[in-house]
Design brief:
By secondary structure, this protein is an alpha+beta fold. The chain is built from ten helices and 13 strands. The protein folds into two domains: 127 residues, no CATH class; 135 residues, no CATH class.
Length: 272
């Protein structure tokens, strides 16, 4: 899998996990877990589906032969035990419930449950990411920039947005909040905080989806800084300095990534 494909997969995994997490309600809320997104997430991580009694189970067996079992219901419990044990605890027969030993297991499963609900989803997301290779060569990043330039030259807005999304992911850019958004514009920037604690964004990517115009401003804009917000909007309207415009934006994004300081434990690392 190429570097680009790994980043795309990372974005997909994050989106799926986000959908599941957003669907988890408090116990007793009646809110239903997004099972379709969860199934996709489980499939990416290699879990095999199995129907046991009335349970939807997804099973992953490691090299030691130990089973990790996730029950696909609103509880999303992750078990480390046998299939028979999960079936007995989650969907016991009358004969099984007669046993005092089994009754204790049914009432208390902390000995075999590793996580539940959001913790299960986050653990699964992390496991999916650990399967991906995020090492890169300079040419991988430059090629990504060239793909963006080609999409921009061809007026292919979806292609431009896709490559911008990849750069935003590896540069940790975030979409600007609604208070700074403008209809038909894609706005994203590096997130920071001022000494006052105010959230700020900059530099900021601006893509006019209707007119296929791309720019990267040098502004750092606080979400409560009215003057800076007005300056940003003026730049977007073409009434001020835009910083970098057109295909050169992708060259700048590639240079920003390649020139970054790699911190210990960083996810994206150059090949030796």
């Amino acid at each position: 899998m190429s570097f680009q494909e790994s980043v795309r997969q990372k974005i997909k995994i994050a989106n799926l996990a986000g959908k599941v997490l957003a669907s988890i309600g408090s116990p007793g809320s009646g809110k239903k877990v997004n099972k379709d997104a969860m199934r996709e997430l489980l499939g990416i991580n290699g879990y095999a589906y199995q129907k046991e009694r009335d349970l939807d189970l997804h099973i992953l067996t490691d090299e030691s032969g130990t089973d990790t079992i996730i029950v696909l219901d609103n509880e999303l419990a992750l078990y480390r035990t046998t299939l028979a044990d999960v079936a007995m605890r989650k969907s016991p027969t009358v004969k099984e419930m007669i046993s005092i030993r089994n009754a204790i297991k049914i009432l208390k499963d902390t000995d075999v449950v590793v996580s539940r609900r959001d913790e299960t989803v986050k653990a699964l997301q992390q496991a999916c990411l650990e399967m991906l290779d995020f090492r890169y060569e300079k040419g991988d990043i430059e090629a990504m920039g060239k793909d963006g330039m080609a999409a921009l030259d061809n007026g292919y807005a979806d292609g431009v947005l896709e490559i911008l999304g990849l750069f935003e992911e590896i540069l940790s850019f975030e979409l600007l909040p609604k208070s700074l958004a403008i209809p038909h514009f894609h706005l994203a920037g590096a997130l920071s905080r001022k000494t006052s604690g105010e959230v700020a964004y900059g530099p900021i990517l601006v893509y006019n989806m209707m007119h296929n115009k791309l720019m990267l401003t040098d502004d750092v804009v606080g979400i409560r800084d009215k003057d800076k917000i007005e300056t940003l909007h003026a730049n977007i309207r073409g009434e001020g300095g835009a910083g970098v415009e057109g295909p050169a934006v992708f060259e700048k994004l590639a240079a920003m990534f390649l020139g970054r300081t790699i911190k210990n434990g960083g996810l994206y690392r150059p090949m030796a």
